[in-house]
Amino acid sequence: MSAPNDARFAAIADFVLSPTLVVPEDALHHCATLLIDTLGVAAGAVPLEAGRIARDFAVDFHAASRDEYAATMLFDGRRVSIPGAGWALATQIDNLDGHDGYNPTKGHIGCAVVPALLAFAEHAPGLTGRDALTALAMSYEVAARAGIALHASVSDYHTSGAWNALGVAALGCRLSGDRPEVLRQALGIAEYHGPRSQMMREIDNPTMLHDGSGMGALVGSTATLMARRGFTGAPAITVEAPEAAQHWADLGEAWTVGLNYIKPYPVCRWAHAAMDALNHLIKTEGVTAENMQSVTVRTFAESARLFDGVPRSTSQAQYGLRFNLAALMVHGRVGAEHISGAGLSDPDVIALMPRISVVEDPRHSDRFPLGRWSDLDVTLKDGRVIQSGDVHARGGPEAWMEDAEVEAKFHSMAGTLDSSRRHAIWAMRDRLLEPDVPFCDLTNLLHSAPENL
Fold it and tell me: What's the mean pLDDT when you consider all of the chain?
């Protein structure tokens, strides 16, 4: 690459580190919703095997030598290192797969930056809710542009951890009041070590690796702490290369955080458009498991490549399409209980799967990644064929979820927590926006283990 542009980086550093950064109120409000929604997913993911392994592993191998280096693992209570806490929680969230995302990045931001916020915030006394949301919104903006720049610079489809690590590094530097030079080195370290793992490899063979956001949180927070000690790694080419300049030109002017979608189902969003189409026909046309003869799904190539068989693990279920369509038809919804434990071998769901076929439609593929479109035909046993028409996955700008639906999703996902605790956490969505509300009013609700396990 050409020599880094000091003036261009100075503008980015000012955006990241300025104590007077102003986030538009609508973007800040949506950021609060994203934060609480992600915490609901984190609570729901506590009993999953991947989350348990991650937390126990962090205790054994990511310990902190001093309290000033430690952070509390959410919904657990044990203390580990700051990077370890971020890694464990991001891994836990990633493996329930109900967290937010941003279409142009083809991936997820909150899954990594929310755990980092909670870990670094323990060492930011006096942090208010609005200050925390401002830092979080900033990190969404940095991660979004890093992701788009990275996708534009390489040919493979890499996981979110490859670029959301930069949002984590920026957040750590802001909350710690670091100098621009520390930020520069931290971004370079985070980008260099960010896991450029192949997303489609995980789609073809679903595992607990998911979208790499656990490693993104680990690498990003580690990068901040290393840079603070003088470790060098700049420049980050997705930030400072001339070819990347176009992706950063509107930083501070165009706010992408308000365009992040919220998932109604805890499965890969590539399945959501088909699920939404079927759900609509269930509600409006009376389609049931009993009167349905067959379903033909036309979708984009990546969606058509989702796991096709009967899942043997939560990972396979989350990256499945036919299974989730069958579960939706049987249960009327898809929650964590349907993609784990006994839900994986539900005989009624498995019996429907052979009646569902999936094919790629080039016109849907052409609209990816900016759109997630599908359509389907349902043939009833009486011979009628009902067509859904083209449907885009709900939860984002194309079809926002109603506020009441987002709240209902939070309570459903966070069912591991007592009702009073859930309502207190949800209430913090609005309280954080009020002046001078301490951020610890939220964090104090998050540290202890769930009551309903």
Answer: 96
Nearest-angstrom CA–CA distance, 423 and 444: 14
For the chain, which residues make up each domain, given as ranges?
6-264+433-443, 269-392
Q: How far apart are CA 152 and CA 166, in angstroms?
A: 16
CA dist 299 and 371 (Å) reads 11
Please name the helix (run of DSSP H) or strand (run of DSSP E) that holds residue 387, with its range, or none: strand 385-387
d(CA 222, CA 310): 39
* Single-letter amino acid, residue 379: T
Instruction: Give the whole-angstrom CA distance, residue 314 versus residue 96.
Output: 8
431 vs 301: CA distance, rounded Å? 42
- Phi, psi for 101 (deg, rounded to 5): -160, 170
Could you confirm whether domain 6-264+433-443 is CATH 1.10.4100.10?
yes
- Measured between alpha carbons, how far is residue 329 from residues 279, 326, 392, 394, 426 in Å? 8, 5, 19, 18, 30
Judge residue 386's burial from the number of C-beta atoms within 10 Å of its C-beta, 0-12 exposed, 13-18 middle, 19 or more buried. Answer: middle
Q: What angle do CA 429, 213, 23 make, to 5 degrees?
A: 40
pLDDT digits (tens, 9 = 90+) for 189-203: 999 999 999 999 999
Q: How many whole angstroms separate alpha carbon 289 and alpha carbon 282? A: 9
Summarised one tens digit per residue, pLDDT across range 112-156 is 999 999 999 999 999 999 999 999 999 999 999 999 999 999 888
Neighbours of 92 (CB within 10 A): 29
Alpha carbons 390 and 299: distance in angstroms, whole number: 9
Do residues 176 and 122 make contact, with C-beta atoms less than 8 angstroms apart? no
What predicted TM-score, i.e. pTM, was given to this entire model?
0.95
Q: Name residue 100's amino acid.
A: D
Amino acid identity for residue 106 in this structure: K
Phi, psi of 416 (to 5 degrees): -70, -15
Three-state DSSP state, 376 = strand
* Architecture of the domain spanning 269-392: 2-Layer Sandwich (3.30)
Strand partners, 419: none
140-163 b/e (C-beta count within 10 Å ≥ 16 → b): bbbbbbbbbbbbeeeeeebbbbbb
State pLDDT tens for residues 370-419: 999 999 999 999 999 999 999 999 999 999 999 999 999 999 999 999 99
